[in-house]
TrEMBL record:
Domain Glucose-6-phosphate dehydrogenase NAD-binding: residue ranges: 9-190
This protein's name: Glucose-6-phosphate 1-dehydrogenase
Role description: Catalyzes the rate-limiting step of the oxidative pentose-phosphate pathway, which represents a route for the dissimilation of carbohydrates besides glycolysis. The main function of this enzyme is to provide reducing power (NADPH) and pentose phosphates for fatty acid and nucleic acid synthesis.
Organism: Coniophora puteana (strain RWD-64-598) (Brown rot fungus)
Enzyme class: oxidoreductase
Family to which the UniProt record says this protein belongs: Belongs to the glucose-6-phosphate dehydrogenase family.
Amino acid sequence: ELKDNTIVIVFGASGDLAKKKTYPALFGLFKNGLLPKDVHIVGYARTKMDEAEYHKRTTSYLKNPDNDPEVSAKIEEFKKLSTYISGGYEDAPSFQNLNRHLESIEKNYQRKEYNRVFYLALPPSVFVPVSKHVRENCYAQSGVNRIIIEKPFGSDLDSCRDLLSNVKQSWTEDETFRIDHYLGKEMVKNLLVLRFANVALGNNWDKNSISNVQITFKEPFGTEGRGGYFDEFGIIRDVLQNHLLQVLSILTMERPVSFASEDIRNEKVKVLRAIPPIERKDTVLGQYVGANGKPGYLDDDSVPKDSVCPTFAATVLWIHNERWEGVPFVLKAGKALNEAKVEVRVQFKDVTQGIFKDISRNELVIRIQPSEAVYLKMNTKSPGLNFRAVPTEMDLTYKRRFSDLKVPEAYESLILDAFKGDHSNFVRDDELDVAWKIFTPILHWIDGKDGSRPRPSPYPYGSRGPKELDQFIASYGYRRATED
Ligand code: BG6
């Protein structure tokens, strides 16, 4: 349930994440009357600025494209809820100062129960000191305290364990909300319904019917100024190990016994534990080069000129359990590709041979973005005086099916869940542990820990990826039917 009398403290209030995601999401919730009653928002960062400057910065990202007067009025109201404090991230007095500010807001509350939600929109280097100082200096004495943190959660198994154990010294698992914003996406949430509320799909969801599964993330732009951050992490840590693996776990887990968050997360962890570490031979790496007037990865000034950091990766995961033995799950992600698309493609097996030969396979496509859709490729008799099977589509495009469709922003949905204390769509500690176990060996190889670093294959900016990709996915049984 939603707690009244809540203060949200946004650390890193002048940073990129806060501006692009946290504030717009808080405003989106506020505009729709979904924030708790008597909510306050306190921005906190190192930058010294007055309230006017702070409001100017945070509201410049709130969308009001048509200059709707109602939205403008809401923005003014939103500003009134929101104050700013500057301070350091490593010293107790700064946090004591913040705490005095929080108390000055809370003393106006009617009820004597105060709730505080601490949102750390911060670089990982300060996660640990901030979480410690907040716990020691800013913890509400009556009411609920929650802390929201975002990836990167370390860069391999050991660093993740270190980070987790450090934060755990101050915060319980129950108080901690680890964001993977893919879990807030409408279509990712739909996976549970699609799989477990449809017998027609559910009963074919295994190795007997499914040949292979592709989970694909494509972005049409490069690092564009984010090269400094990106080069340290690479595409596997940026997208595969978290966002795509989360999608895979919901796609493959067993039916949870209830909607309780621990029941769902138990099933996710169970299926992830059945996946061994990725092997080198099951991997293709790529790095984009300049083409069509667009710069290559190495042309980004914030990237070292000899970087071998992959901006594209395709890896194959295998799940050793009765449902999935032998089915390859291909996870692929890349920057600077030919289009923006995130989708799951479940390719079914060939139909029994005999009367039908060489016809397309069934494919269930779940398009996460853009334009949410689920469609099933089916063979149909071509109408007329013939007996030819042609590939057709049963198409559920959300925009057409749901009139007045309003898909909430992932961050809105997650922040609301955190206010309510619902952990279902947040990442549990043991989920992270097992996710890193799957990816750490391949990452150490890419980092050069086992000898020389592998060289990614070049691919032109705006292309479909490295040239060996088609051959690679075909070798795991994927048969291209129509353009994808
Ligand atoms: C972030 C990555 O986690 O997800 C980015 O760090 C990526 O590199 C982004 O662009 C993609 O998110 P979305 O919601 O735009 O698909």
